[in-house]
Amino acid sequence: MKQVPIGVSARHIHLSLEHIERLFGEGYQLNVLKDLSQPGQYAAAETVAVVGPKGRFDKVRILGPARGKTQLEVSRSDAFALGMNPPVRESGHTEGTPGITVIGPAGQVDIEEGVIVAARHIHFHRDDAARWGIADKQLLTVKVEGERALIFEKVLARVSDQFALDMHIDTDEANAAGVKTGDVAVILS
After folding, report:
1. Less Cβ crowding at N or C end of the chain, within 10 Å?
2. In this structure, is residue 42 part of a structural domain?
3. How far apart are alpha carbons 56 and 40 in whole angstroms?
4. Based on the domain organization, do 31 and 100 belong to the same domain?
5. pLDDT tens-digit profile of 15-60?
6. φ, ψ for residue 118, nearest 5 deg
7. How much of the chain is in helix, strand and coil states, percent to nearest 5?
8. How many angstroms separate the CA atoms of 81 and 56, rounded?
């Protein structure tokens, strides 16, 4: 049986180094609040506000380290509250997506694009993917058990020797399936 731990991803933002400095001040370094499941990734102690056409969220957690481009990941419910309709995309694929205003303690940034609903995906270390015969970018079918058992289709496989085995879904998907971080999913195909 191909069992995978589940990680539920709440709304969060990845910031470029330039935007960290514009939001928090020149030379500012993010502080680690806690390490995440992926090696080298962490939830920062710092948060920002994001403002869309119809709504605002304060205290949006920053995930570090700095990225090449700023990207806000929200659930479909979050997007509705902000007054937006971002596409479902793989992380990092922000071309043609809506922008948003990001506010920090030292300033604000208006990004022209970068808001997505993250595609559900599983991070595979190359060894795990090889053992199970799974290729990078393959679309998988995954089942979660329980009172609200659910089958997720089109789960993107992301394979790298930099990844640790973990399935990432957003809060809307987790609520629909009645699962939480640490629960287990089974890859069907």
Report:
1. N
2. yes
3. 29
4. yes
5. 999 999 999 999 999 999 999 999 999 999 999 999 999 999 999 9
6. -65, 135
7. 15, 45, 40
8. 8
Q: Which 3 state secondary structure label does DSSP give 45?
A: strand
Q: Which domain holds residue 178?
A: 120-187
**pTM > 0.70: yes or no:** yes
The contacts of residue 80 (CB under 8 Å, 6+ apart) are none
- Same domain (yes/no): 90, 137: no
The residue with tokens 């993250």 is 118
Residue 126's CATH number: 2.40.40.20
Report residue 37 as tokens: 């499941």
Looking at the structure, do residues 107 and 164 belong to the same domain, yes or no?
Answer: no
**Same domain, residue pair 153 and 111:** no
* Whether residue 82 is found in the same domain as residue 16: yes
Distances (CA, A) of 165 to 15, 23, 36, 40, 119: 24, 33, 12, 14, 16
d(CA 144, CA 157): 17
Residue spans of alpha helices (H) in 72-157: 76-82, 126-132
Mean pLDDT of the residues in the chain: 97
